[in-house]
């Protein structure tokens, strides 16, 4: 059985994780391991036993992490979660193990590589609910085409982090997916592939599973 780490939201003495993440990993035939900030160091010590990492969704990253003051963040993610996940990103990159960042997870990846975020996007597309089209412009993971994905975020990539390459975008120019050039599988997507069975979501999970060793 191969273990896949999944990070979770934290609030005081409680942790939170949508069960869809666990079900998605289990359906792929892997064993989900929920990682809270408290066990980050233990996970790093046992990195050879963990085959991949999912950085789950969450609230807003404190803009101080990308050199800005807070002007529009609605619910800040505790710094302990951000710092713990950055440590995980670093070790998983070093070990060249698959990492998938989802929504907040993608935004954190971008900040890790010195990218910045729009604190609140206002375009002709409502990204906070429902669904919309994306266009795949780089067939790194998914064949070039137009797909429909779910959407539930109010922030997005502004300046792209170093070494990251965009592979899909929304019609309003919002970045919906990127990958780290030269890494076997370091991918961020702005939608939630664990929530549906759309073609784009299934392609993400299938590609992730193929890289698990």
Automatic annotation (TrEMBL):
What molecular function terms (GO) are annotated for this protein?
gamma-glutamyl-gamma-aminobutyrate hydrolase activity; transferase activity
Under PANTHER family, the record lists:
GLUTAMINE AMIDOTRANSFERASE PB2B2.05-RELATED
List, alphabetically, the InterPro entries matched. Class_I_gatase-like, Peptidase_C26, PuuD-like
Protein name per its UniProtKB record = Putative glutamine amidotransferase
Q: Which Gene3D superfamilies does its entry note?
A: 3.40.50.880
Q: Which UniProt keywords apply?
A: Glutamine amidotransferase, Transferase
- Give the species this sequence originates from: Thermodesulfovibrio aggregans
Q: Its GO biological process terms?
A: polyamine catabolic process
Cellular component, GO, one term: cytosol
């Amino acid at each position: 059985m191969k273990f896949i780490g999944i990070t979770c939201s934290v609030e005081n003495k409680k942790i939170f994780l949508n069960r869809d993440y666990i079900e998605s990993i289990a359906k792929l035939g892997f064993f989900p391991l929920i990682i809270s900030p408290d066990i980050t160091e233990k996970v790093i010590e046992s990195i050879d036993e963990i085959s991949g990492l999912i950085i789950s969704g969450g609230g807003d990253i404190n803009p101080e992490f990308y050199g800005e003051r807070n002007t529009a963040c609605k619910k800040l993610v505790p710094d302990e979660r951000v710092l713990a996940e950055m440590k995980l990103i670093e070790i998983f990159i070093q070990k060249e193990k698959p990492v998938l960042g989802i929504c907040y997870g993608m935004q954190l990846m971008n900040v890790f590589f010195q990218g910045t975020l729009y604190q609140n996007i206002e375009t002709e597309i409502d990204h906070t609910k429902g669904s919309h089209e994306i266009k795949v412009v780089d067939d790194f993971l998914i064949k070039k085409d137009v797909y429909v994905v779910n959407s539930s975020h109010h922030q997005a990539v502004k300046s792209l982090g170093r070494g990251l390459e965009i592979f899909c975008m929304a019609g309003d120019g919002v970045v919906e997916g990127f990958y780290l050039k030269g890494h076997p599988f370091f991918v961020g997507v702005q939608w939630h592939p664990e929530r549906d069975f759309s073609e784009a979501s299934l392609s993400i999970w299938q590609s992730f599973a193929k890289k698990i060793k």
